[in-house]
Write a structure and sequence with these properties.
There is one protein chain. The strands form two sheets. A five-stranded antiparallel β-sheet has the order 3-2-7-1-8, covered by helices on one side. Strands 4-5-6 form a three-stranded antiparallel β-sheet, covered by helices on one side. A hairpin with a 2-residue loop joins strand 5 (about 205-210) and strand 6. By secondary structure, the chain is of the alpha+beta class. The protein contains six helices and eight strands.
Length: about 280
């Protein structure tokens, strides 16, 4: 064999050896990769049973959660209805008690008038009692009326806040009432509830209470005085009127002041059950 033929034979042997090594390496590497073909559940019944069991369990859990949510919603609705019924019952009971108090006040006044009538001293005492009753709100009061109305600012649909800064608060109504007294009012009501020296204006949750009774907006504060125009002018120019202007300008609170002519304020019904 010549030297050229020997060299060619050596090169061929080397190429064959390299091809064999590469083939073995590729075969071994691909052998380590797991099969990605879908499982034939007909040949693997255990896997099929496990999949079905998982699906059934998931469906059961979802159904159980949905059923529980419905039960909770029904229970919450029932509790809410019970609370509403209790509040309505209590409100009717309070209204009935207030009617009894009003009737008792009338009966007492009639008995006093009958007892004091007929003598000069009795007549003087009767006049004094009537004057005191008007001062503390035991009897209706007739006079020239001024009315201040307050309402919450229009709601902003783009706002994400739970409470609006334009919401009327108890201190706003207190401010209006005190401003009317300071301006010369002789009697005041809030939503037709007569105020006395022991009346309380407070907040409970989101509701404003007058003598423990909730108010429904708009809030109407009515006052009487000998001169309604003078009362309205002093109120508007006073501190309360200026503060209401600021509330309207800064927060959008809606308010209005007007004279309403001769009006009658009802007698108070909370003299025995209200107070601070």
């Amino acid at each position: 064999m010549t030297s050229g033929e020997k060299a060619t034979s050596i090169v061929g042997d080397m190429n064959a050896s390299m091809d064999a090594l590469l083939a073995d390496a590729v075969t071994s590497d691909y052998g380590r990769i797991p099969a990605t073909a879908p499982v034939d559940y007909r040949r693997h019944p255990a896997a099929m049973a496990l999949t079905i069991g998982c699906a059934i369990a998931l469906t059961f859990v979802l159904s159980l959660g949905l059923t529980q949510n419905r039960k909770n919603a029904a229970a919450n609705d029932g509790t809410r209805q019970q609370l509403v019924a209790r509040v309505e019952t209590a409100d009717r009971r309070v209204s009935a008690l207030e009617a009894r108090v009003t009737q008792a006040q009338r009966d007492l006044q009639a008995a006093e008038n009958a007892k004091l009538a007929g003598t000069s001293l009795g007549t003087q005492a009767q006049i004094k009692l009537n004057r005191l009753r008007k001062a503390v709100g035991f009897t209706p009061m007739i006079g020239n009326g001024v009315q201040v109305s307050l309402s919450d600012a229009p709601s902003d649909p783009t706002s994400t806040s739970a409470t609006s800064p334009g919401t009327v608060m108890d201190r706003d109504i207190q401010m209006v009432v005190n401003g009317l007294w300071e301006s010369g009012a002789t009697g005041v009501t809030v939503n037709n509830r007569r105020l006395t020296t022991s009346s309380a204006i407070r907040t409970a949750g989101s509701a404003i209470l007058v003598d423990y009774r909730p108010l429904v907006p708009p809030y109407i504060v009515t006052a009487v005085a000998p001169d309604a125009d003078a009362l309205a002018g002093r109120f508007r120019d006073g501190q309360a009127g200026l503060l209401l202007e600021q509330l309207q300008a800064r927060y959008g609170v809606v308010w209005d002041l007007q004279t309403i002519g001769q009006t009658t304020l009802p007698a108070a019904t909370n003299n025995y059950i209200g107070g601070n």
